[in-house]
Write a structure and sequence with these properties.
Elements: H1 11-14, E1 27-36, H2 40-51, E2 56-59, E3 75-76, H3 83-90, H4 95-115, E4 123-124, E5 126-130, H5 133-148, E6 155-159, H6 163-167, E7 174-178, E8 182-183, H7 186-199, E9 203-205, E10 210-214, E11 220-223, E12 226-235, H8 245-248, E13 252-262, H9 267-273, E14 279-282, E15 289-292, E16 298-305, H10 314-325, E17 334-345, E18 351-355, E19 359-363, H11 370-384, H12 389-395, H13 405-425
Parallel strand pairs: 1-2, 1-12, 2-9, 5-14, 12-19
Antiparallel strand pairs: 3-8, 4-8, 5-7, 6-7, 10-11, 11-12, 13-16, 13-17, 14-15, 15-16, 18-19
Helix pairs in contact: 2-7, 2-11, 4-11
The structure holds flavin-adenine dinucleotide.
Length: about 425
């Protein structure tokens, strides 16, 4: 695996519990489906297809879960990005389908963790926190809409006066606990799913960068040292995807997001700052999110960077944000700090569709992908079987292409980001 990169030096890589290594693709191979990219999207698709009896080959340029899937905040949050646009496009027509899809990934993850005995610290409990009155109003509206969907037992609106006991901070105006959501160790989940897929016969190849696709009745996928001829191809490279520029350029843009992990906290500190072990997200567009790891570290993330430029020091840019919420953690050592790329779509609706009838793609979850990648894996597997009902709900939403997106996309998205930052400040 000469040119392949290893997992980035994150808390997750340091606590990874699966040492499987998959060989690079060499020579000519035949499959029903060739999946390009071995993050959640690629692996979830491959596992669903394998469970349905398809012969699948997965090609990954680096390591399984090397991208966002192995680096993210591990927050499993219901719903999807771009929901408002989807609703506006479809009115009531697909309201039930969209609501079900927003939690379908949770069910798939829970089933797989159980069925394949995947040790990934899956826990339930999550809270949205409001920093402004309009966010409190949004919380009230979500609460009511989720109650109308029968979720009342899993929800609780938390008034500001209770938050210091639940989160050890008085920075928020209110919270909405949702116990259907939760958190997990994303790298261990993805590696566990890959192991399960391999046990079902999926051929996974790391260190196998795809350089091109030749279209036809049987598309041919060319990697650095081998080729796969397949009935179908699934593109699952998300923000790291550079293939199919003509069809997809100007639609998904990489944005950096960053996380730090402190040294483990004491039992007393945990009791003070997060006794219910909740994953927490504020409601800003440029949001902060945090939770505790299984070994009691504070995992604190945020600071989206849309310009494509890495901060000079991730730790230096994240620590002040952490201290603003938790001054009591100011003396904590930071053991890990890392970042990854989120695939952002202009209207935030995940980009699902097909090129030429037998090449499918699913990407651009706009930072909300732990659950949706799993739901979309099922949608891709349905498409392979000729069922497009759920795919077409996404494919039917008009997406704006940023002209000269590949050249100016980063700057355009950075401008959009500035707009959202200003809005967060109001
Ligand atoms: C720092 C950070 C925090 C986040 N936090 C959360 C969170 O808490 N909750 C949440 O829901 N979402 C979160 N997200 C978003 C979530 O991680 C992503 O939406 C999700 O992981 C996307 O999965 P994916 O498989 O589509 O893409 P990725 O995991 O990025 O995988 C794409 C893979 O494709 C491979 N690839 C690309 N091109 C090629 C090629 N030509 N040949 C072979 N392989 C190729 C890449 O190497 C990569 O491994 C976060 C993202 C980041 C970066």
């Amino acid at each position: 695996m000469t040119s392949a990169e290893q997992h980035c030096p994150s808390y997750y890589a340091a606590t990874c519990n699966d040492d499987a290594v998959y060989p690079p693709l060499r020579g000519d191979h035949r499959a029903d489906v060739c999946v390009i990219g071995a993050g959640f999207t690629g692996i979830a698709t491959a596992l669903t297809l394998a469970e349905r009896g398809y012969k699948v080959i997965v090609l990954e340029q680096n390591r399984v879960s090397w991208g966002a899937s192995g680096r993210n905040g591990g927050q499993m949050i219901g719903g999807m990005s771009g929901e408002a646009t989807l609703r506006k496009t479809w009115g009531d027509t697909h309201a039930d389908l969209l609501f079900d899809l927003g939690y379908r990934g949770h069910d798939i993850i829970a089933e797989r963790v159980k069925k394949y005995a995947i040790d990934c610290d899956l826990k339930y409990g999550y809270m949205d926190v409001a920093l402004k009155q309009r966010q409190l109003d949004d919380q009230q509206a979500w609460y009511e809409s989720l109650c109308a969907r029968g979720m009342e037992d899993q929800l609780r609106l938390v008034p500001a006066r209770e938050l210091p006991q639940l989160l050890g901070t008085d920075k928020y105006l209110g919270g909405l606990i949702n116990n259907r959501n939760g958190h997990l160790h994303p790298l261990n989940l993805c590696l566990g799913e890959a192991r399960a897929a391999a046990a079902l016969g999926v051929a996974i190849h790391e260190g196998s960068k795809v350089t091109g696709i030749t279209y036809g009745a049987l598309p041919v996928v060319t990697a650095e040292q081998g080729r796969v001829t397949a009935d179908f191809v699934v593109l699952a490279g998300n923000a790291y995807q550079h293939l199919e520029q003509k069809a997809l350029s100007g639609q998904v843009f990489p944005a950096g997001s960053y996380i730090l992990a402190t040294e483990p906290l004491s039992e007393a500190e945990v009791k003070e700052i997060n006794p219910l072990d909740l994953a927490v997200c504020d409601q800003n567009e440029v949001l902060d999110y945090f939770r505790l790891s299984a070994d009691r570290r504070m995992l604190f993330g945020g600071r989206c960077n849309y310009s494509g430029r890495e901060p000079r020091s991730i730790e230096g840019s994240m620590v002040p944000r952490l201290r603003k919420i938790y001054p009591q953690l100011a003396s904590k050592r930071v053991d890990y700090a890392w970042g990854g790329k989120i695939g952002i779509v202009v209207n935030r609706v995940p980009l699902l569709g097909r090129i030429g009838g037998n090449v499918f793609y699913s990407m651009g979850y706009s930072g909300h992908g732990v659950n949706m990648t799993h739901a979309c894996g099922e949608i891709m597997a349905d498409a392979v079987a000729g069922t497009f009902e759920r795919m077409d709900v996404f494919a039917g939403v008009p997406h704006r292409k940023i002209p000269f997106g590949q050249k100016f996309g980063g700057q355009m998205v950075a401008l959009g980001m500035l707009y959202y930052r200003l809005r967060d400040m109001l």
